[in-house]
Amino acid sequence: MAKNVAQSTTLASLDQKLALAKRCSHEGVVAGAKAAVVASIATAIPTLASVRMLPWARANLNHTAQALIISTVAGAAYFIVADKTVLATARKNSFKHVPNMEA
């Protein structure tokens, strides 16, 4: 009986930690997606404008190069923001359960 109670308490604790981890990763995905959209727009406007206005860019940046520039910035923004969000959320949650240790 005591083993069952301890086992169910451990399973409940694991379920709670799993739910917290899922929420943490979901927040990271949402924040990363928002950052990728903003970065795409912020990169697409000057890239497309420079191809229209600058002779060097018109001669050297074809459609593939333009898409590569925009998608690289969007991907980098996604991963950087998602990683920072997950780490910040995990740090916040790990300090939430630590008792205050004053001497």
UniProtKB/TrEMBL annotation:
Read off the PANTHER family from this record: EARLY NODULIN-93
Segments spanning the bilayer are 31-51, 63-81
Q: Which domain of life is it from?
A: Eukaryota
For this entry, the protein name equals Early nodulin-93-like
UniProt-listed InterPro entries: Enod93 (IPR005050)
Tell me the keywords, alphabetical order.
Answer: Membrane, Transmembrane, Transmembrane helix
